[in-house]
Amino acid sequence: MRPCPRPSLRSRRSQRFTSVGWWTSPVLSVSPAPLFRIGYTRSTMTRLDAIREHQARRGKVLAVLPIHYPKELLTALDILAVELWGPPGPPRGPDAGRIQSYVCAIVRNALAFISAGGIDAVDGLLFPHTCDSIQGLATVVPDFGAWPKPVFHYIHARGEERPSARRFVEAELRRVAGELAVFAGCSLDESRLSDAIRLHRDIDRLRVTLLDERPRLPLADAELYRLLRRGEYLWPADHLAELEAAAAGLAPAPVQRGLPVLVSGIVPEPMSVLDALADAGAFVAADDYAAVGRRVNRHHQAALDDPFAALVELSFAAPPCSTRQSNQIARADHLEALLESSGALGVLLHTVKFCEPELFDLPVLRRRLEARGVPVLQLESELEPELSGQALTRIEAFVEMLGAATARGAR
Q1: Distance CA 383, CA 22 (A)
Q2: Is 1 within the bounds of a domain?
Q3: Highest-scoring range by mean pLDDT, 20-29, 45-54, 158-167, 342-351
Q4: In a domain, 9, yes or no
Q5: How crowded is residue 272: how many other Cβ atoms within 10 Å of its Cβ?
Q6: Is 185 in contact with 4 (CB distance < 8 Å)?
Q7: Which of 197, 263, 343, 380 is the most buried (most CB within 10 A)?
Q8: What's the CATH number where 148 sits?
Q9: Residue 330 belongs to some domain of the structure
Q10: ∠49-50-51 over CA atoms, to 5°?
Q11: Max Cα distance, the chain (Å)
Q12: pTM for the full model?
């Protein structure tokens, strides 16, 4: 098998960067959204642009279902990951009806989208074992003949760290690496894998900076989340360039004037939830979305002389997540730590309807937060294009309550 291409992993693959104009949403929306107004360099690429550019360089592209997967392996093999979060909105075809109506919209919409040819441009599909529904989708898609291209599976770390779990995760990583090397048509160079780990480590560090220093970042919440979520489909070096430019725009003192709120859930969809918070007078001061904050690893201390051992260590050092069956007490502790560090006044638990892993954790999280006297708003959505009027009213009332409590405390 030939070695993988040797261009630097940090070479930007796209020249489609600008600081003026409009952009197409990274979640497959056709509606334009205003550009960031602080004048930093950012990508104008859509998912389809990214796919075509990468394939023009003879690289492979994998569509990846949520949430946790070894992206470093894909980068080292010159495989572009393009994540499929539904997509949001109504199902893009009739095949959503092949799955029970009490399965979450991410899975139902993904089946409809795949069956309707929505991802025909990619070269294969990767299914992490996020939950029973996504694992079932990995069987349903090829069985129904909706997808004739290669399908890969990855079973990630679950539960507590222990020697047997570490051995299992390393064996799983090596198995997936072997399958992906055949798919990519090149052998995996471990030094290149170490380089990929360093690249993603730098991306994580910048994401940590932007999230932790949120009060000093002169971006609206929706703009910040569009930036962070473009990592779902851009080549990592291109995404790194955007993050570096955004971090360079941090103000010396806080510029956010709203009430600080912590958000937790699976994915910030509809994205209008962020605008609703801003319109009500709040801003996201801390993030625990599985699509965003729970994928930011703050513990990149692993030695890279054995890159597979480093990936195993990173798997268990990641923030607690319901989809990895993390200890619920540890997850509640993590939310409390975010509250303390961010100064958030309340918590928005924004769940996807029928998401069983997340729903299992909510009673424990609510009890812990309410025992601390922290106001909690639980909001459920189904990837609808926009929030309902009822949801908007609840967000407005929640933020108004936070403001009233803050005013009473000030007196």
Answers
A1: 24
A2: no
A3: 342-351
A4: no
A5: 18
A6: no
A7: 263
A8: 3.40.50.11900
A9: yes
A10: 90
A11: 72
A12: 0.89
